[in-house]
Amino acid sequence: NLTNLKSLIVSSNKINEIPKEIGNLTNLENLNLFNNKIQRLPKEIGNLINLKVLNLFYNIIEKLPKEIEKLLNLRELNIRRNKINEIPKEIGNLINLKVLNPSYNTIKRLSKEIGNLINLESLDVSSNELNGIPKEIGNLSNLKELFLSDIKLKFILNEIGNLTNLESLDVSSNNINEIPKEIGNLTNLKELKFNNNKIQRLPKEIGNLTNLKYLKFYNNKIQRLPKEIGNLTNLKSLDVSSNELNEIPKEIGNLTNLEDLTFDNNKIQRLPKEIGNLTNLKELDVRSNKINEIPKEIGNLKNLEKLYLSFNEINEIPKEIGNLKNLVVLDVFSNKINEIPKEIGNLKNLEVLNLSYNTIKRLPKEIGNLLNLSEFNIRNNKINEIPKEIFKLTKLSRIVYDNNQNFYYLNLSNINLKKIPYILSKMTFIKILDISYNKLTELDSNIIELKELEKIDMRNNELKYIPDRLWNLPKLNEVLIDEIILK
Questions:
Q1: Which residues of 106-205 form beta strands (DSSP E)?
Q2: In which order are the strands placed within the sheet that holds 478-480?
Q3: Which CATH class is domain 408-487?
Q4: H-helix or E-strand containing 400?
Q5: Residue 484 has pLDDT above 80, yes or no
Q6: Burial class (CB in 10 A: 0-12, 13-18, 19+), 54
Q7: 199-224, pLDDT tens digit by residue?
Q8: Helix, strand, or coil (residue 24)
Q9: Could you tell me the pTM of the whole model?
Q10: Rounded to whole angstroms, how far apart are CA atoms 394 and 397?
Q11: How many angstroms separate the CA atoms of 297 and 286, rounded?
Q12: Domain 1-140 sits in which CATH superfamily?
């Protein structure tokens, strides 16, 4: 009886049936039945001639009635996550439709009538059982978003080049091995994704997409990037990880607006010096390549926050690393580095430093300047002493040090210690500890955790007493303390 009703929202209930009387609500403009258990729509739904939005997302509908063709004012149809295996050809009559989302169903084909939806701006058919799309999709000249991911596509139609208003195109997780040159017609594209395909090369016409901001091609078989990639000067994020690249073209240096650059898991042997032009870069990931040298120009990346260089063949970190004052994460895990430059101490914002699995013999004392460091990993090196300056790092909560040769002596003497640092309790490998000539007034429980401790020097502090638990350390056999305390 609610014939004047304009909006009806009954989402997230347990409704399994819509009464035919729904057809009496002829003034209804918005019908939201999201997240119910509806199995079918009554044919009377076709009476809702003023309906603009129909949301059936997350139900168990198997079929749309052909009467849906009467909803000539419909602007948005969301049938995502149902059990629909076919879209009726009558949908082609909904010429005012702007948004159509039948993703996550079991649709096996799209009828050519979909090409009649000339006002459509967003189409998402992702995660269906389509093997292709009709060429008539090229008629959708007003389309701004097209999502074709995970639909078993083997090729892209040349007609895609007709969609000149397209701003976002996602064709990820298919079986595509070639991109047509017509992709270069999509000059309004801002986001392009071809992740998880079998693409071997990029057409040079990709360089026409000068409005692109996000370009994603991870997990393909690309062997080289065309030099025209350097034309994409508005690009903010480029991901070509998990491919077969063996070099990065120098034209990458033209992408001065780039903030995120990911080349991990390729076969790259060197970084071009032009990478130093990317002064807006915040994250650089070149893990798992064959890089043996870092160009000094990396020091120009003043805005860099995260630098991932692990699993390469790097033998030296350039001193220019010290220019990266905004760096928060530095990961050089599993390389061939044997020395850390003292300039690392300039990285005052560094929070995570991973130097593990290298051949480092000593750490520079300047590492004690990294006042924001919270995680420090030096596992599997050749370090035999930690510089005492590291214990100035009050924010350090995790240190990984195992599998270093002859690493058992820790000298913390004469560094103005007033309290035993918490991180000391994690260094259970220590056999000899020197905390003499400080300003300690007590020994807290952090010392008691050093089960391997054999010798401790506590002389010249301000200690009033020694806790009994110290004497319970099983391997302790030598204690150096002031005579006054003994008395």
A1: 122-124, 145-147, 168-170, 191-193
A2: 409-411, 432-434, 455-457, 478-480
A3: alpha beta
A4: strand 398-400
A5: no
A6: buried
A7: 999 999 999 999 999 999 999 999 99
A8: helix
A9: 0.90
A10: 8
A11: 16
A12: Ribonuclease Inhibitor (3.80.10.10)
